[in-house]
Write a structure and sequence with these properties.
Radius of gyration: 29 Å
Structural class: alpha/beta
Strand content: 15-25%
Strand order of the largest sheet: 5-6-2-7-8-1-11-10-9
Largest sheet: 9 strands, mixed
Distance between the termini: 102 Å
Oligomer: single chain
Helix content: 25-40%
Shape: elongated
CATH class of the largest domain: Alpha Beta
Number of strands: 22
CATH architecture of the largest domain: 3-Layer(aba) Sandwich
CATH topology of the largest domain: Rossmann fold
């Protein structure tokens, strides 16, 4: 609705104050009164008239003239620089409004774009998502007649005709929902996908394949997810937030200085984070950032709520509640292979199994005692994922687990080929699997005995048989550093992982207590646990040298 033209100075002031973004611009009765004292009513009246014109223009054509708050600009920048962005927002934080604004600008500014937007159901799409898109439709397109190219028809009752529209520049939008079959995207080449609210993880996985072609050919292929995490730590949230490195924080006054999250000072909450997955970011839309939301009213709504609920509802932040094994693991622990020292003491560890490939890791310890996981097998780049996030909290088995029928001799040959002459100080093995007798022609032998047979004699020692809880504790000790300070020589973890070890990184990011031993991300973290509890150390020519002497 077009705002009525004010006829008096008081009506002009009331009109400006009624515009919600006026608060964000610092316009209140008190500030206006102060400016009148300083500059006079005529000068301030001119300012108010300009503000009114800005307000009127934003109502008449939001596409061109919408007031754009800073967190929208930051989110747009992240989408320009990355392939995937999660907006985890508080209630009424403006995440859907921003997303609709961004989608419409992409469609209008880049001819022949193809964009799919998703809502929970067909009804929620018509009720919420499609009206937001219509709001930001360029004004000159809203009354176009249908032609061989453009086709834009919208009603409040039914949304867009056939859940799609085509702009004069050939760009087309498809309004879909999660109740549909995921093969509805089969064959589509998309410039962007906007998943709104609680997107099941299999849609995220399906959508990624539909974006790759235009990501290369048109430099688009963006995935935008906007949600309030009211159902907690879902596989989709985990994909972005687990292990993410917080880059920026913002004040969180509703928490009253309560202890915040790792990477944030007390009284602050995360704002922007860099994800473990390349070219992926998270931005948290705090409700107070939304200039169209009355902050006092929202604060009253949350009065008496728990800290956990305030974090979710006001700041869009939730924490893993199903036993987060490595809460401090982040991008700070993942390093470029070229940054791994060439010199050090090498160890190797395996977790054998007959029903899947063995999981194997190699670690190098430098003189300062820092541990670098520098190789994994099967590696993600060659064999694919060890485990895959899914709608099930325990995940699903990935292609790297599929057994290839290797015998013990073939495993030994492969290890030597990968190591290419590297000297191993010790080789470790899962104590249960390594000590289990195996039937042979000569009788019962353990796997450790068989690995020590010729050719390629290779002796393994059982890893310490500590409990899982003890092992997790020692890994967390090795990961620990002051996350509120920059990583430096005086503030750094003792454990680093090569970015080439993608399956170990995935497992550390997704592992939890969910489903116990059936958790598909458990195997590589077991191997790491065996290594860390063994307490590998740097060994040189002085390590075992005789010291001192003397007599009575």
């Amino acid at each position: 609705m077009t705002p009525p033209s004010p006829k008096t100075a008081e009506e002009l002031l009331e009109a400006v104050l009624s515009w919600p973004p006026a608060r964000a611009l610092g316009v209140t009765r008190d500030t206006i009164a102060k400016k009148v004292e300083e500059r006079g009513s005529e000068s301030v009246g001119a300012d108010l008239t300009a503000l009114y014109q800005q307000m009127r223009a934003s109502v008449l054509d939001p596409y061109l003239n919408c007031y754009v708050p800073q967190h929208w600009l930051d989110a747009r920048r992240l989408l320009d620089e990355n392939d995937r962005v999660l907006i985890s927002g508080g209630n009424r934080s403006g995440k859907s409004m921003f997303s609709a604004w961004w989608v419409m600008h992409l469609l209008a500014e880049k001819p022949d774009s193809r964009v799919a937007v998703f809502s929970m159901t067909s009804a929620s799409s018509v009720r919420d998502q499609q009206p937001a898109l219509w709001q930001f439709m360029p004004q000159e397109y809203k009354n176009l007649k249908r032609s061989q190219v453009e086709n834009i028809r919208f009603t409040q009752k039914n949304g867009f005709t056939d859940n799609t529209f085509i702009l004069p520049n050939g760009s087309q939008l498809y309004a879909l929902n999660y109740a549909q079959q995921s093969d509805i995207l089969e064959g589509a080449e998309l410039d962007a996908i906007w998943f709104d609210e609680l997107v099941p993880h299999h849609w995220v996985e399906t959508g990624e394949y539909r974006l790759t072609t235009r990501r290369a050919s048109r430099k688009t292929g963006r995935m935008l997810i906007s949600a309030t995490p009211i159902t907690g730590w879902t596989p989709t949230v985990n994909e972005f937030v687990a292990g993410a490195k917080i880059l920026e924080t913002r004040p969180a006054p509703l928490l009253n200085g309560a202890m915040s999250v790792p990477g944030c000072s007390p009284g602050e909450m995360p704002y922007i984070a860099d994800c473990l997955k390349p070219r992926s970011k998270v931005i948290w839309f705090h409700t107070a950032m939304n200039p169209w939301q009355d902050p006092e009213e929202f604060e009253r709504t949350l009065s008496g709520e728990s800290t956990i609920n305030i974090r979710i509802r006001a700041y869009g932040y939730c924490e893993k509640s199903t036993g987060n094994w490595f809460p401090k693991f982040s991008k700070s622990h993942v390093i470029d292979p070229k940054d791994i020292p060439q010199e050090g003491t090498n160890y190797m560890c395996v977790d054998p199994a007959g029903s899947r490939n063995w999981a194997c890791l190699w670690v190098r310890v430098d003189k300062a005692g820092r541990m670098y996981i520098y190789r994994e097998w099967p590696d993600k780049e060659t064999y694919g994922e060890w485990a895959i996030p899914s709608d099930k909290v325990e995940g699903e088995m990935g292609p790297a687990q599929k057994p290839e029928g290797r015998g013990i001799g073939e495993y030994k040959e492969m290890f030597l080929e990968l190591e290419a002459g590297e000297e191993m100080e010790e080789r470790l093995i899962d104590p249960r699997a390594g000590g289990t007798p195996a039937a042979t022609k000569e009788g019962g032998q353990t796997l450790i005995d068989l690995m020590g047979d010729e050719p390629n004699e290779m002796w393994f020692v059982p890893a310490p048989g500590l409990t899982i809880e003890q092992g997790i504790g020692q890994i967390n000790d090795a990961l620990n550093y002051n996350v509120d300070e920059p990583v430096s020589i005086v503030n750094e973890p003792r454990l680093f992982i090569s970015s080439k070890c993608g399956n170990l990184i995935d497992c550390m990011q997704h592992i939890s207590s969910a489903a116990g031993d059936k958790n598909k991300f458990k195997d590589f973290t077991d191997v790491l646990r065996y290594i860390i509890t063994h307490e590998p150390s740097h060994v040189d020519e002085n390590t075992y040298a005789a010291v001192g002497g003397g007599s009575y």
